[in-house]
Structures are given as C-alpha cells and as structure tokens.
Amino acid sequence: MAEFSINLKSPQDSGRTPSTDVSQEMFYHAIAFFQAGSRCDVNIRLSPNITSSLSAPAAVCYALSIEIYFKLLCKLSGVRFPRQHSFVDLFSGLSDADKKLILERANMTEEAFTEQIKPLSDTFVRWRYLYEQDSAWTSITTLAWLAQLLHNTIRASRPHLKVTYENSLALPDNFKY
Q1: Is 93 within the bounds of a domain?
Q2: Are the beta carbons of 160 and 154 closer than 8 angstroms?
Q3: pLDDT value at 130 more than 50
Q4: What is the helix (H) or strand (E) element at residue 51, kind and residue range?
Q5: What does the pLDDT read at residue 17?
C-alpha cells in the first residue's frame, strides 16, 4: 500500500505560512469550507438527462462556513461566542456594531434578517446527519448568500485579515468591499 500525506493548510507553494493568529486561521477555515460547499454545489452532468450535485455536503460546508464567520466576528469584537451552531443565536450574540454592519450590507432590518436565517439556523446539525432525519429542508442559495454576506462584511470591516487566493490585484485601488 502506498503512503501519502495530506496538507491540511494550503498548498506548500502558495507562499502562505501558518498564522499564529487564531482570528486569521478562523478566517482561512471559513473560506475553505465555503469553497468546499461551492465545489459540492456544482451540478455535474452524468448523462444528457441526469445531473448530480452533492446537496448534503454543500449544505454542511456552507453552514459550517457561516458558523465560523459568526464566531470570528464575535472573537474580533471580544464577545464570547456560544459553543453551538444556531445561526440565530450566533447572530444575536454579535456586538451591536457587527450586527449593524451585516444589516446594512444585507439592506434588511434585524427582524427581517432573523426571519431570513431562522429556517436555515440548524442546517449544520440536521444536514450532517441527514440519514437520521425523516425530512429536512434548507436553501443552498440562501446559505451561499449568507456566507458571502458575512465574508464581505468581515473583509470591509477588518481589512487586516488576509485572504489567500483572492485576486485583489485585479481590483482597482479605490475598490470598497
């Protein structure tokens, strides 16, 4: 049997060295799970009449990404984040300043935003063990939207965090996230 190793960070030739900053590592992990969700979300044609996507892994990866983004915002604001997965609870635990930033970017009231994320709030818990459920519902599109919203909120409000593989060189100098 051949031996091999797996690099759990980024490729060796990326020029990225592991950070000792937990916030930076949380950001990298959130991005990685978003990317994994995106890859699972792609429809692959198996034949002219059949396509396949990996909905459950996409939902779990997007949900975990969202959870890490919420917890990162808590950490960056000095707010102790709960050891749970509920999007509604994680959002309600954010600082008022971070809630305001998210709501402004989403162009929603707090009530409307909470209603938007409430049906998705337990996606990570339910979908990681989907085989144990009689039924489950989620919106992959809304999960992706929420992850992007949180990512862009963090990028705009915490520019000191680095993003590996994001093509910032193609953006004009005056570009605002």
Answers
A1: yes
A2: no
A3: yes
A4: strand 50-52
A5: 56
Whichever domain contains 134, its CATH number is: 1.20.120.330
pLDDT per position as a tens digit, 140-172: 999 999 999 999 999 999 999 988 666 555 555
- CA 68, 73, 75 angle in degrees (round to 5)? 90
Phi and psi, residue 69, nearest 5°: -60, -45
Name the pTM for this structure: 0.81
Amino acid occupying residue 29:
H
State the total domains in the chain.
1
Helix (H, G, I), strand (E, B), or coil: what is residue 63?
helix
Q: Which residues contact 23 (CB under 8 A, 6 or more apart)?
A: 72, 75, 76, 161
Alpha-helix residue ranges (DSSP H) falling in the chain:
22-40, 55-77, 87-92, 96-106, 110-117, 123-128, 140-157
